[in-house]
Specification:
CATH topology of the largest domain: Thrombin, subunit H
Strand order of the largest sheet: 3-4-5-17-14-6
CATH superfamily of the largest domain: Protein of unknown function DUF3599
Order of helices and strands: EEHEEHEEEEEEEEHEEEEEH
Number of helices: 4
Number of strands: 17
Shape: elongated
Strand content: 25-35%
Structural class: mainly beta
């Protein structure tokens, strides 16, 4: 069998000369004869040390619960949107499944805020998350910080049974998020004349282990069904994935290996506080 033809010997393009400068145009085809030999493949590598990154996540990663976002099958053919009264997603269009407790490195909370002082915009509630590559987070997933607390102010309607709240047990109500502790609950018997009444935990209501509001006899008799109450409470901050994660950040490692090995790198994504993304107020996950 005849030998394969040798590579053509091309000369690199000549530099382009301008009146004030000379541009050395790089060759499009390698000058086989005159170019210096390429260094050996196994020398002078700069490999990404995945074990170091995993060590950082193990040492500084926050304890979070990751929930996958799944498109809800409900669909309104007239509007092309999710059904507002859906008992699974409450009109948000997404249900959240498979909660998993993981470690995640979270940083850059509200980073680079100086630029928004000039242009009048403020991207509050934003941060970056990095997780190990086996946790393939994606757009609209939720991340709940299990050890952090944040206050939230909300108006509730007693006995609200719309959408997913219809699954609540009798005598229970739910805030947007699972309540860790209630700071203050206020009720106004007659909004036209005023006169706020403070509802006391342990007497008018109590917070269950699931984070729901359980009305006790005094509160059930005082607050009419359908009446609104104002609630300030603490919850575990919940974020949504709002930017596509870097799932394609793979590295080719060849150090001390007979063949190249493709290594998946940690996944990074952008997050934003859940209540700044969705206006809907569905019941917390896992109901």
């Amino acid at each position: 069998m005849a030998d394969s033809p040798s590579a053509p010997d091309f000369t690199p393009p000549a530099p382009v000369t301008h009146a004030d400068r000379v541009v050395a145009v790089p060759p499009t085809v390698r000058d086989v004869d005159n170019s210096p030999p390429r260094p050996p493949k196994r020398k002078q590598r700069s490999d990404f040390r995945t074990e170091d990154f995993r060590r950082v996540i193990d040492q500084h990663g926050k304890h979070v619960t990751w929930r996958k976002a799944l498109l809800c099958p409900c669909y309104n053919e007239t509007t092309g949107q999710a059904l507002l009264g859906c008992v699974d997603c409450s009109g948000s269009g997404y249900v959240y499944v498979d909660p998993l407790d993981i470690r995640a490195h979270m940083a850059s909370f509200d980073r680079n805020t100086k630029i928004y002082e000039k242009f009048g915009m403020w991207l509050e509630g934003a941060c970056a998350i990095t997780v190990e590559p086996q946790y393939r987070i994606h757009f609209r997933d939720k991340i709940e910080m299990r050890d952090a607390l944040m206050p939230f102010n909300e108006l509730l309607k007693k006995g609200n049974r719309r959408g997913i709240r219809s699954k609540l047990p009798a005598g229970m109500d739910s805030a947007r998020y699972r309540i860790v502790s209630a700071t203050k609950m206020m009720y106004c018997p007659d909004p036209e004349t005023g006169g706020l009444v403070a509802l006391e935990p342990g007497f008018h209501f109590e917070i269950t282990a699931d984070g729901w509001i359980k009305w006790l006899a005094a509160g059930d008799n005082l607050v009419a069904a359908g009446a609104r109450v104002s609630l300030l409470y603490d919850f575990h901050p919940t974020y949504q994935v709002v930017s596509h994660p870097h799932v394609t950040r793979d590295d080719v490692s060849g150090t001390k290996r007979p063949v190249d090995t493709v290594v998946s790198l940690p996944i990074q994504a952008g997050l934003k506080l859940d209540f700044l993304v969705d206006a809907n107020t569905p019941l917390p996950e896992d109901c």
